[in-house]
Amino acid sequence: MSRIGKKPIPIPANVKIALDNGTVEVQGPKGTLRQRVPNGIRFELHDQQLVAQDPDDGRAGAKFHGLARSLVANAVAGVSEGFKRELDIVGVGYRAEVKGRQVQFALGYSHPVVFDIPEGIEIAVDRNTHVVVSGIDKQRVGQVAANIRALRKPDPYKQKGIRYTGEVLKKKVGKTGA
Q1: Fewer CB under 10 Å: which end of the chain, C or N?
Q2: How many DSSP H helices and E strands does the chain contain?
Q3: pLDDT-based confidence at residue 1 (cuts at 50, 70, 90)
Q4: Which CATH superfamily groups domain 83-164?
């Protein structure tokens, strides 16, 4: 039995859970998420706590026990509080601007880079160089932030580009030569 899978998931008062066969639907103040559950994993609701039941089929199902619990716990946290990922844009002339459902980046290329904002994701830009990606689905928020970072990864020499806030980069030494 998984250590993570054994932990009960506390359910806030403003969150409703609907257990279907193979899915858990979580509804809260920020929205609704449906999470598929791997075969063999069952969830039971006991006095404002959701518990993942240990699968009966041994190791084959047990490997998904902690995963299923974590996915549902992330859904509960997402619909009640939400998730956000912050990025910083570093470089002379590098900036971002939100225009409708698109973000327009100036990243040192010969053309502006236009990034479409997916459904369920909100993007805010502060001071033209600080991007905040937020939403209720942790996986999608992280993937959108990674896609934005991939538009201009930080350069190891001058450290220009898009990086996560607080990310520590390894700086390479340039050529020392004649």
Answers
A1: C
A2: 4, 13
A3: low
A4: Ribosomal protein L6 (3.90.930.12)
